[in-house]
## 1
Amino acid sequence: MRPSILSPLFAPLSSIIGLGEKSQKLLKNLDCHSTKDLIFHLPINFVDRRFAPKVCDAIAGRVATLKVKVIEHIAPQKKSQPYKVIVADETEQMTILFFKAYPSTIQKNLPLGKWVAISGKVEQFNGSLQMSHPDYILPAEQIETLKKVEPVYPLTAGISNKMLNKWISQALNRVPALPEWIDENLLKEKNWNSFGHSLFAAHRPSCLNDLDPNSYARQRLAYDELLANQLTLALARQKIKKQKGRELKGNGLLRKKFLENLPFKLTQAQEKVLQEIFTDQAAPFKMLRLLQGDVGCGKTVVAFIAMLNAVECGFQAALMAPTEILAKQHWENFQEWCSCLNIRCELLTGKTKTKKRQEILSDLALGKIDILVGTHALFQENVAFHDLAFAVIDEQHRFGVHQRLNFSNKGDLTDILVMTATPIPRTLLLTSYGDMEYSKIDQVPEGRQPVDTRVMPVEKIHDIVAALKRKIDEGSRAYWVCPLVEESEKIDLAAAEERFSSLQKYFGDKVGLIHGKMKEAQKDLVMEKFKTGEISLLVATTVIEVGVNVPEATVMIIEHAERFGLAQLHQLRGRIKRGFQASTCILLYAHPLSETSRARLNIMKETEDGFKIAEEDLDIRGGGEILGTKQSGFNTFKLADLSVQKGLLLTASKEARLIIQQDPDLTSTKGYALRNLLYLFEQDEAIKNYKQ
């Protein structure tokens, strides 16, 4: 149950005076669903109404608050003309203009002969001062009630700043005095005030510095949000560590035989990661580990060896890939590896024929299948394992924390390894994957050569095609990735088909096309031809996974590379790092090139280190959509801006770990204050992770 002290903040928007049903619907566009969401909707600017001169001293282009007498009303002669009201003080006259306004309303608000207070931006026209549609008009004696500094909020159609100011003021008055959850020493060190005081200060900016993420008030609020995030993850991690697992300690025979048949030696990084995984598997608790490594660093081999440990113990293992192409690729590798080990591996996807599917499901339940590879179809209800002990989730399955907690329910006491080739910045590791243990393969196999990355203008395309023809005539294979035109598969497809047609003139039937609209069988056929060399050049759109293991492909041309995110560019370039031959990646760009695009292309040219690329991309893009993927827990922060507040995240991470060590059930006085924090930021699921 949510603590009653927080009830005023979770009251529905309908409880705010003057906030009707229509406005409530519109506020959803601003992600405002309750009173709490209003107080977390921070201003992005402010209007300073403190300048209150005489009319003669008013400055054009500046907001002024004036006390004036209404002298004359001048109704328009034509519809296109404004309604004018002449006002003055003892120093000078000025004109107030109203376009498309109701005369009766104007006359009521500005009665002839009365003194009024007006506030708005002063303009100059033909040497005379004027003000169009004042922001405020009120009786002169009420001038002191006018806000001297008015916050300006992000808006949506149908909601004005004046409306938001009224509603947010009401919401702020409901903020209760909450017991402090931040350590006293940290409050002093950072010069932070209480949560309530900081909230009021953030909504009452008086200078530009108050809007800065590094202002004391905004820092404090950002830290509260980050601490709630890190504490949630720490509690989830604690729960996983407490969940009973099974101790997987195989006899090593299958692993020994596999390594003896492997045509290469594992790198030190692979050996190190394997030991980390084996330690997890041998522990009596469930495993949940993230394995990160660049394309071609050998994650799949590591995962397969870990699966063999489970098979040696008499259990089953499974691998889930995001697409059918990748699932099939993994299965083909595993089939080859399993053949010399006398163990059975099967493939299950949405395209598996009914008869074969029934056979697989039956044998799986009987324990006749050791390793099952597939897409998300693996985890449908009708798929029953005999005894699943180890599951691997490959690439792009960025499940949320609570989904991961529930994921292993498919098997009794199942260990989980999540693999990704997408380089993840440290901040994202902390905010989205902080519930998981973490391993990193930061070494590529010996003998693998760096990719020669070149950045060239699209005008040189004819020279590039000629050079590409020479390479293909020598027996090379290449990818040609078509540009991302816009968020439209149809238009992307048209661009790819056009490029395919133009390249056919040079390469004839040696060029193939693959895109997301093709049927699976067609895709497989084109991919197979590319693998065998029947096709030497593969043209592809960006809407499909091109992550096929073709070591012979040594050239990658990416058209309009400036339209791609760094992660996409890095992942695509990784496709020509599968073999041990020298390879070339050409990034074609079109003018004009923005500073951000130029910086992005330069990073690609300078380094192949995915982890460095990830951090650079974070710095270039700020806290927006990092690496072209929307991450849960990262860009959903309302108060924190990780592009400038990384330090606060690290502090929150350390603090959360310390809290769990000292008060794992949150039963101390501070623990109960922290429960308020978790409920305040709607981390209700985390509350369930400890004893009530």
## 2
Amino acid sequence: MSNIIKILFATLLAVCTFVGCQSSKDENSAKGTAEVNSKGVFVDGKPYWLLTGEIHYFRVQPEYWRDRLEKLRACGLNTVSTYCPWNSHEPTEGNFNFEGRFDMGAFLKLCQEMNIKVMLRPGPYICSEWDFGGLPAWLLTVPNMKIRSNNPVYMEKVSAYYKRILKEAEPYFCNNGGPIVAIQIENGYASWGNEMAYLEALREIVLNTGFKGIIYTADGDSDVRINALGPKGVWRTLMCGWDLEKGIDIMEQTQPNMPQMISEWWVGQGLRLGKPRTVRNIQEMSEELDAILARGAHVACYMFHGGTNYGFMSGGLRNPPALPYTPFVSSYDVDAMVTEAGDITPKYLKFRDIFLKYNPENKKFPIPANSVKKAYGTIKLTQVASLRENISNLAVKKIYSPDIKTMEDLGQYYGFISYKSKLRPQSFPIPVEIRGVRDRAWISIDGEDKAVFTQNDKETSVVVDVPNGGDIDILVENMGRVNFALTMEDNRKGITGGVVLNKQQFQQGWEISSLPLDNLNKLNYKSVAKGDKVKYPAFFKGTFNVDEAHDTFIGFSKGKRGYVWINGELLGRYDHIGPMLTTYLAAPLLKKGENTIEILELEGMSEFSVESLDKRKIIERGKFHGKRSPRKAKK
């Protein structure tokens, strides 16, 4: 009975703190501020409970931002947290992008209009299953670069980015009447390093903008990482997926006399290629959520709504020897509270009951309806273009080099790269080895396909017989840069170690073509019909008509793996090994009348067609009962 009384008292205290307690500061002098201290979190001098859902503006079509935010608000949440991807905002050094899905200012303005507070997470590193953890690949070409440290070369680039991204955010700072009440510096830094000077430098850049809100860090999910030190004046918050109360216990001992926040509660995480999506037990999660809210803890649900890794932006994992290289998929439908297509889930409804218990004010917001989904049927692919036969049409840059170069050496960061050379006559068959395949390579000799290798293959050589010499052609696909763990600096793409003949000689003299595939307009398509032989990898093209645009899902049951474009927009990768067997196509990307679909099929198609479906298809693994190695609070 005593435990029940304690829980009831804690719940009452938490609710009172949220709705009625007074700050020690005069509210007028605190106007336009957000702070955290031993008495709690305060916005404009008033107690504030950070009930937060994570939505990434860059993973959602702008036309759907309002719908996702309305669903967040209707769920009983009052704050949105969002990353900012440096590599998409500054795709090449000094050239910034704030258009379309990357119009951060428009997203923040919408949050302001809807009275939703914002926790901004500009990195520079964001992890997030995003390519290179959000770091721009051009950093890999800068001499003397050491990422995620107070290295002067790195900090020069970070400072320029921080100043530009925060300039974009500045009109929306709380002290300017905007919704941004907190800014996170770095991300999970204790999983990488422990240099306090680096975090202090990031803190100073934020302070120098005049921001009057909360600056915080986020680390987790073990004792080692939780106990990382934090700079003075920076709130330390926790990332974790289970054992929430034990995490809070540890934080209360390592950061006493302060409110505690789980700034990333992993309600759903990234989808790895070929791995079933894990679905967690909703009841167990709900009980944990209720327990920490009863204690007055702040929380952010990661993800509230996952969205889509459009383009080539899915990252990958590699942590040898235990973990081979595994790319993430283009879908970020991570068993979040709202699906990739914006639909509410049983998890949403269950968590909503709990959040509204502590924030009953949001009961006034109705749950918006899910979007209409439509199946447009079979889409015939009537044209074909061999990738290899169109290299000159696709290449944005071609160089001649005595030695192998990586993508980054050519100023290329995504897509494919082509290497061509001439083998000299050999008196006996010789092995040709590709060292450093990043990440999938097709090898042909005199136009004949010989092998396909990935970076996980222990053997990446093929025996060739060229008594009269021959043309060697190697096509390499970048499948996504590692976004987490200590292997991140080893992230160049293409061929990183050279081509070796007979284990003793480098092949030299290369024609190298950069194929970022950001424009397919010059492809030389030809008609294709059932029974025609096609040389893969190959592009296919078809059209379909739309009377009224609705969300739909593209299925590739007749193909194996590749990429899909709609009206010139790259949606991302598809793969028959799952877990996502369909690609989400948002209605705003369709137009009334004729629409064009193009796919790059890498292996082969049994029929030249794809399907437009009204439901997603996904491979899932049973309910995960998330009781993993429980933490122990230190005494």
## 3
Amino acid sequence: MNQIDEEKKIQIYRSIIFKLSKQQKIEKNWNRKRKINLELKENLEKALEITPQDIELQVDLMYVYINLKDLEKAREIGDKLLGQTDSKGYLNALALIEKKSGNYDKAIAYIQKILEKEPNNQVLRKELEMLEYQKENKPVTKEMIEKQKAYKQMATLERKTRDIKRTYQQIGNIAQRIVEKYPEEIVAREKLVKALYITGEKEQAIQQIDDLLHLDEKDEMGLWYLSEIQRDKGDLEGEKQTLEQILENAKPGTQKKVEKRLMVVKTQIEKRNQKKEMRESLQVKYGTEEERKEFIAKIQQDFLYGRIGKKEIREKIKEAKKYVNFDRSLIELADIEAKITDNKEQKVEKLENYIDTKPSITPEEYARIQEEIATTRRQIQEDNMIEAYLDKKEEQEEQARQQSRMGQREYSKEIIAKLNKGQITKEELPEIVETLEGFMDRARSVFLITKLYEALYSRERAYDELIKYSIISDLSPEEKRQIAQMQKALTEPHKETDTMKKIKGIYKQKQEKEERYHKKIQKEKIKQWLEEGKTVKQIFDLLKDSGISLKTIFGVKRKYSKENEVLESREKMIEEDAQALLKGGYTPDEVFEIIEYDIPITSLKQMNREIRKQEREVTEGIEH
């Protein structure tokens, strides 16, 4: 095989490995997940035959072996790679192997190596905290598990890039719940501040920053987002002070970033002061910068409330020439016009025309306009790419939905047919439910799950199961409506259909048959143990988990004592012992315990009454 063929083959394997890796991450069914991992293992091994030194593929194979619970094979690969890589994936795999093997010290050491590179990785910090507890055999609290789960959710969401605003709304909701439950959790507050800033809720972000700085006045993230908000508001002096405060305690990784931003802010302040002095000295006749900002702010507010259209915005662009810094106004108003017309190309054309036709333009204005043109062109390109990607994604998702619906219909038909014949057992139900939950049409699946629980158990049990699905946060409005209708149907009185009556009748007959068979087996066991000489108490203890009653055991004993001379003889001996104990002054309850339940308590009480009656008759005869 020549080199070109090998390269093509490894590309094919990488494509297969990528798709299988995505599948196994989202697959919930244990058996299907295992099959995917076995297929993934086979493809990784074939790929490594072509490129045996590929570290990334070897690390992927380590994770597959971990998923297959073959820790020794995973450790072997890890030992071979020692000294060749210190990537996060490799170190994390080693930590996972040692954690599952109970070697908490080694697992902690690997996590610490990752944290040296990613000191702000809160998911790993929570993992480290859990490992420390497990190492010292301390109980892992519910709160720790809850926090770790929440941070993992937020980390997963942060990797999404399609809809940033919606993603951070979800992150903000998770962080808000943590903060409300654990007010001292600083990292959750930092996440909440970031989410509020990105989603545009800056006033709420400021309030959270105040709470955060109350807990830690030097908190870097809180101060950084405070500086961002100050910048957005045009408060350069406030931003400068905040950046200087960050710089006092900045970590090496963020120090350069802060210094760079602080230099820009200082330059802007200096230029602003120079312009102000120049305008004052020349007594410029244009409106001031503050008036220009008020003018633009009023237009932006009108746009937000739908009070301005294409014609009005063009008039406003002309009017903006009465104020200083027209280039800034043009950028802002052209942006509003592009949003109204949904035409960014028109915005670029307008800005380019301004550069070409303005008689005199400062280098600063030119740079600012060119930067805006470049940014807008990137946005146009990104919009086109996103639109193409979304179209393709929508097409793929629709195909997947169709395949899922077909599979769901076939599987549902099979389950319904078995249910109608009474062939589904309670033991099979959890696996059937798990399969149904994996389909895309959740409302259809929940409806069938509800019917299964109603047929095999009761309407009350079906309602309890339905409640679990009603609290899923990402249900669509239509799914919520359908589940609400199911809940209403289960709580309102109604006449059962003939089909449901028939199904319940089949399961009732099967249950009664099983109970009769179970009782027959129990009676055979009781007879056998009686013949072996076991007491009623011993038999009751052996069978109490099956729900057997003493009355049943006594009934079997009476029947078989009459048929068996040995048992009848033993019964008479027990009665004699019981009479002796009662005559000796023991109460019926005490005798019942002593003879280990071999005579019913009612019989003992009757026997005791007769003995006491005889004693009274004897006493009365002596007195006379």
